[in-house]
Amino acid sequence: MCTGVKGHVFMKPTSARLREARISRGWSQPRLVRELRQAATQRGHQLPSDTSVKRRIASWENGHSTPDDFYGPLLCDAFAVSAAELGLNHGEAKDAPVLDAAYPASPDDAIQTVSQLWRADLNQYDPLLRAEPSEPAWNEASLRWLVAPEPGIPRPRSEGMRVGLGDVAAVKTTADMFARLDDQFGGDHARHSVIQYLNNDVTPMLRGQYTEQVGRVLFSTVAEATLLAGWMSYDACHHGLAQRYFLQALRLAQDANDRRLAGSILSAMSHQATFLGRYTQAGTLARAALMGISPVATPTLRAQFHAMDARALARTGDVAACEAALSAATKALESRNSEDEPEWISYFDEAELAAEAAHCFRDVNRARQAVAHAENAMSGSHVRSDFFATMVLADAHLRAGDVEEACRVALDAMDLGEQLKSARCISYLAEFRQNLTAAGPSAAARELAEEAREHRLWIAAGT
After folding, report:
1. Looking at residue 446, what is its pLDDT?
2. CA 301, CA 307: separation in Å to the nearest integer?
3. What is the helix (H) or strand (E) element at residue 291, kind and residue range?
4. Disulfide engineering: 363 pairs with which of 1, 127, 189, 314, CB 3.0-4.6 Å?
5. Dist. CA 254–CA 99, nearest whole Å
């Protein structure tokens, strides 16, 4: 059961939204003129005199007129928002960058689109929060990345903040802090704060002035932060939004020339696709990650990608291929050297691989093997991962016919996950409750229902 928080679309008049968008950024009308002129240049257009454009802005903000089809997209570019957020034609045709799940064509397209995503998400734009993932987008992204030419370079800018490596390091440190919160409290705990930080602090950096060297590091760091936003949105079961973040992160990683991070982003897409029941796409994404980073692959990354492939294969019922993929993952992990691994993959260890194997054996109805792997999957340091592993252990016991032990373990999982704000966690518990009901009435099930009736996750899983 994936439940998300529905947002709303502000119903202020267009004039008020335009004035608020400018003032909230601390911009004067002459500053907006400069921003519009810059946006027009990016699109290959020219604007009339500053006086003429300023007169138009005053007319829009006073409600005497509304931006036409020429100026509307320029305003969206300048403010990095969707047309709907500005009240322009209800955002129907102009929301494409936000609502379309497309792989950006250039670095500047990626900057524009991800900035619009952050802004629309921050404003709780309901169509975006409720958007469904696109199956063709997974295939397009993996193919486009695999055959991509040399990394792109954002066009040089003469305006905006000057960005140095110290600024990029601050983004990295802040994203790492949010990642720890996500791990401990779930994706819905600080997701809004992450997006607010990216929108308010990171967007000006992407639109700022930096050397090519700094730009590569900036893109890699922002790709990692956007990947985190994707994971948190996925955990909150905003699946279309999560996919869009993953797509933007992949493009940013491509232009950072960070093949390893790009592979990890494809792995995240595979994980989400399996969760959503798109097993063929999930396997394709995992194998694309393996293929795409082969020249620079590390043992831990290979292990993770093989594990994602195994998860997809288990769901399709291909037991032999699943076991082969798990065996490859185990062999790869055994050869790892922590000093040669990216810092952001350090979490994937024996416990994580055991958890993936437990999922696999549960899904191919090998309950005893699932139990054995799940019991080795408790890291003690990753709360949400331990919750998932504990619920898989409970489900494995249930499939093995040990209802009493299954209920005991499920109660342990609820105690463990009491602080988690995660729609995915609720979905695991909801699936267990369905399986427990299907197993028939029992004293253990009645006792569990009585003991768990006040648990927040139990209540959420029953609605």
Report:
1. 96
2. 10
3. helix 279-292
4. 314
5. 22
**Residue 446 to residue 428: CA distance in whole angstroms:** 19
Question: Which token pair is 228?
Answer: 């985190």
Three-state DSSP state, 162: strand
* Distance in angstroms (rounded) separating the CA atoms of residues 451 and 463: 18
Q: Terminal CA-to-CA distance of the chain, rounded, Å?
A: 9
What pLDDT shows up at residue 2?
Answer: 65
Q: What is the pLDDT of residue 153?
A: 76
The number of angstroms, rounded, from the C-alpha of 105 to the middle of its chain's C-alpha atoms is: 20
**DSSP type of residue 418:** T
Give me the residues paired with residue 162 across strands.
209
Query: Cα 160–161–165 angle (5° rounding)?
Result: 135
**Cβ atoms of residues 446 and 406 within 8 Å:** no
Query: How many CB atoms are closer than 10 A to CB 446?
Result: 11
Q: Is the pTM of this model over 0.70?
A: yes
According to DSSP H, which parts of 198-278 are helical?
A: 203-206, 212-235, 239-255, 259-275
Residue showing tokens 């350090």:
346
Q: Is 365 left (phi over 0), alpha (psi -120 to 50) or beta?
A: left
Measured CA to CA, the distance from residue 94 to residue 76 in angstroms comes to 9
Q: Which of 303, 427, 316 is nearest to 353 (CA)?
A: 303
225 in Cβ contact with 201 (< 8 Å): no
Q: Which residues does 51 contact at the CB level (< 8 Å), separation at least 6?
A: none
- What is the third-level CATH fold of 352-463? 1.25.40
Q: Give the pair of three-digit tokens for residue 93.
A: 């045709």
Residues 278-336 pLDDT 10s: 999 999 999 999 999 999 999 999 999 999 999 999 999 999 999 999 999 999 999 98
Q: Would you say residue 99 has pLDDT above 80?
A: no
- Count how many residues are written for the chain: 463
* Secondary structure (3-state) at 209: strand
394 HSE (CA, 13 A, CB side): 28
| pLDDT number for residue 4 | 36
The residue with tokens 């004039």 is 15
Q: What is the dihedral sign for C-alpha 135, 136, 141, 147? A: positive
359-402 per-position pLDDT tens digit? 999 999 999 999 999 999 987 788 999 999 999 999 999 999 99
Give per-residue pLDDT as tens, 253-281. Answer: 999 999 999 999 999 999 999 999 999 99
Of 271, 359, 372, 374, whose CA–CA distance to 322 is shortest? 359
Distance CA(197)–CA(34), nearest Å, equals: 25
pLDDT band at 124 (very low <50, low <70, confident <90, very high): confident
Q: What are phi and psi of 162, to 5 degrees?
A: -85, 130
